[in-house]
């Protein structure tokens, strides 16, 4: 068994490949897991892509591959360290468990990247809706404004997803929100 671990550890280039693949997989394919969790926590305006909602086999495969990547990244990292610094076998188990613990925050961070983009895009839409109804001369209550914003946000997201531009749309909207926030803070400081 230890010979097998040392032979896997000899491929020192495997851990970075697995960790980068795990991060990218979580960021660009498994991120709806974080969005569904946010919806359960009450953030009902989050947009979960249709490919995630309508294809349960794809959803299961994505989650399965995410778990497999996490285990492979942890195992290859522990095996590489064990082959560099050989010691008693229980240290390998300890290192493997330590790397498994690191997998959770890394994937959470990666999956929450899309959520942060959606937050910025949502609040940009919120401000647009608020300004629009203020210019019309009929300011809405907070609940009505939230409803109008969620509806407009979901429609814009569905349109961007149908055009295969969802991430590009989110990035653009997020940059616009950040730029508007910087302008507001500069204006307030002056």
UniProtKB/TrEMBL annotation:
Residues crossing the lipid bilayer are 12-35, 56-82, 88-107
* The keyword Transmembrane is annotated on this UniProt entry: yes
Alphabetically ordered keywords of this record: Membrane, Transmembrane, Transmembrane helix
Out of the domains of life, which is the source? Bacteria
Name of the protein in question: Uncharacterized protein
Q: What is the lineage of its organism?
A: Bacteria, Pseudomonadati, Fibrobacterota, Fibrobacteria, Fibrobacterales
């Amino acid at each position: 068994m230890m010979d097998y671990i040392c032979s896997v550890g000899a491929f020192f280039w495997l851990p970075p490949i697995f960790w980068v693949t795990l991060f990218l997989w979580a960021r660009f394919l498994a991120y709806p897991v974080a969005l569904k969790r946010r919806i359960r926590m009450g953030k009902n305006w989050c947009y979960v892509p249709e490919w995630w909602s309508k294809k349960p086999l794809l959803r299961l495969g994505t989650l399965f591959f995410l778990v497999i990547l996490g285990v492979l990244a942890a195992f290859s990292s522990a095996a590489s360290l064990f082959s560099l610094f050989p010691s008693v076998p229980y240290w390998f188990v300890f290192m493997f468990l330590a790397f498994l613990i690191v997998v959770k925050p890394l994937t959470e961070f990666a999956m929450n990247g899309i959520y942060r983009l959606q937050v910025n895009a949502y609040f940009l839409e919120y401000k647009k809706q608020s300004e629009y109804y203020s210019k019309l001369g009929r300011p809405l209550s907070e609940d009505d404004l939230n409803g109008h914003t969620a509806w407009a946000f979901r429609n814009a997201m569905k349109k961007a997803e149908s055009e295969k531009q969802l991430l590009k749309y989110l990035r653009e909207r997020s940059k616009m929100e950040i730029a508007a926030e910087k302008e507001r803070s500069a204006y307030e400081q002056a």
